[in-house]
Design goal:
Layout (H helix, E strand, L loop, with lengths): L1 H142 L1 H19 L7 E3 L3 E2 L5 E2 L3 E5 L3 E7 L4 H8 L3 H25 L1 H4 L3 E8 L3 H10 L3 H7 L2 E4 L1 H67 L5 H10 L10 H13 L1
Parallel strand pairs: 5-6, 6-7
Antiparallel strand pairs: 1-4, 2-3, 4-5
Length: 395
């Protein structure tokens, strides 16, 4: 009976447990179904929201694209207008100065053209006048020997100025002198040289026969006028040689420079007569054209420059000698002063020792008198007092 009761109790317990399990499974299945339905609903809502969001995003993207296109169009138009405006301003800034420069250039060109026209007219008038003057000078030179001489002296003066020489110092014009027979001689120029030497330059013009030679159309007439031109030059050489300027002018180099003021007359003469320069040299006369004379004058100028430099060096050397001599005297005095200072220093040190060194030095004795009642009108300097005290301690 007992066993049956236990069995019934166990069976009831097992049945209750099985019923509970079954009931639990049903509840779990119901909850699972609810979860699945909720998940499906959530998925549906998510899908709907996703579709809606995607559609909204596409709509917004389309709107943004449209707005961007509009903004880009407006910006491009605005930038284009701004760029065109800026370019116009820049171009205007560049072109305005160019326009002003072109206008100034046009005005200057007009003024310059007018000035050039005036200059050309003036030049033509001056050329015409110079041509007339040259023709008049040529006629005067051909017919008047005095004017020929003046013209030659003028050319000589120009060469002297071009050489760098100084009138009155380096050369003298028309310096009168007398020969041994009392004749008055006036060479055109006397050029001074370093070393107290001098050279005479005299201008001789031979143009009458030469101009006839140049103007002659006939060959025989040309030969005859050329011979006459050479003869004229030879007469001038002989005239200069007979004046003996080289003997009359003091310290002359012994030769006279005969200046022919014209390259063409000089070349024509020496080319026609190969012996002309040698014969003139034998008579102590040297023929020179403008080119050669200028070279000779510049040589004289260079000689003077070298002389001045040599004199400067000599003056510097003399000044250096004087300065050296004065310095040696100063050095001797300086050494003597040093010796005196050292001797004086020795005397000073000995005197100082007498005043301040040793027991019973002079200062100590004087101070002892003060202690005994002496009342001097002034006190001994502290420095000496300290030195005297230190001197007693060292003793």
């Amino acid at each position: 009976m007992l066993i049956l009761s236990v069995f019934l109790i166990v069976a009831a317990a097992i049945g209750g447990y099985a019923f509970g399990v079954l009931l639990t499974q049903r509840r779990f299945a119901a909850r699972l179904e609810q979860s699945r339905m909720a998940e499906a609903a959530a998925n549906a809502r998510f899908e709907a929201e996703r579709s809606h969001a995607a559609e909204a995003l596409r709509t917004q993207a389309a709107a943004l694209r449209q707005e961007f296109r509009a903004m880009a169009t407006d910006l491009a138009q605005t930038e284009g207008r701004s760029l065109r405006t800026e370019h116009l301003r820049s171009l205007d800034a560049l072109l305005k100065p160019l326009g002003r420069d072109l206008e100034n250039f046009r005005e200057q060109f007009i003024k310059g053209h007018a000035a050039m026209d005036r200059y050309v007219r003036d030049l033509m008038e001056q050329t015409t006048a110079m041509g007339r003057e040259a023709e008049e000078l040529a006629r005067a030179l051909r017919s008047d020997s005095k004017k020929q001489g003046n013209w030659g002296e003028m050319i000589l003066g120009n060469l002297l100025q071009a050489s760098g020489l100084t009138e009155g110092r380096d050369y003298v014009v028309q310096a009168g002198t007398e020969d041994g027979e009392g004749r008055r001689l006036i060479p055109d120029v006397v050029v001074n040289l370093p070393g107290n030497r001098a050279v005479i330059v005299d201008s001789k013009v031979s143009l009458t026969a030469f101009t006839a030679y140049v103007a002659a159309d006939d060959a025989e007439e040309q030969k005859r006028m050329l011979r006459e031109h050479v003869a004229s030059v030879r007469r001038h050489v002989k005239e200069l040689s007979q004046k003996r300027y080289d003997k009359v002018v003091k310290n002359s180099i012994g030769y006279v420079l005969m200046f022919i003021p014209g390259e063409a007359p000089y070349v024509a003469a020496v080319s026609a007569d190969e012996r002309l320069t040698a014969d003139a040299y034998a008579q102590r006369v040297i023929l020179l054209n403008p080119t050669n004379l200028l070279m000779a004058l510049q040589l004289a100028y260079n000689l003077w420059q070298s002389e001045m430099q040599s004199r400067s060096v000599g003056e510097i050397y003399t000044s250096a000698e004087r300065l050296y001599k004065k310095f040696t005297l100063f050095a001797q005095n300086f050494v003597q002063i040093g010796r005196g200072i050292r001797q004086l220093s020795d005397v000073y040190e000995r005197s100082e020792k007498q005043l301040t060194t040793g027991r019973g030095n002079i200062i100590s004795q004087l101070e002892g008198w003060k202690k005994k009642g002496l009342t001097p009108p002034a006190d001994i300097p502290d420095a000496l007092m300290e030195a005297a005290a230190a001197g007693e301690e060292e003793e």
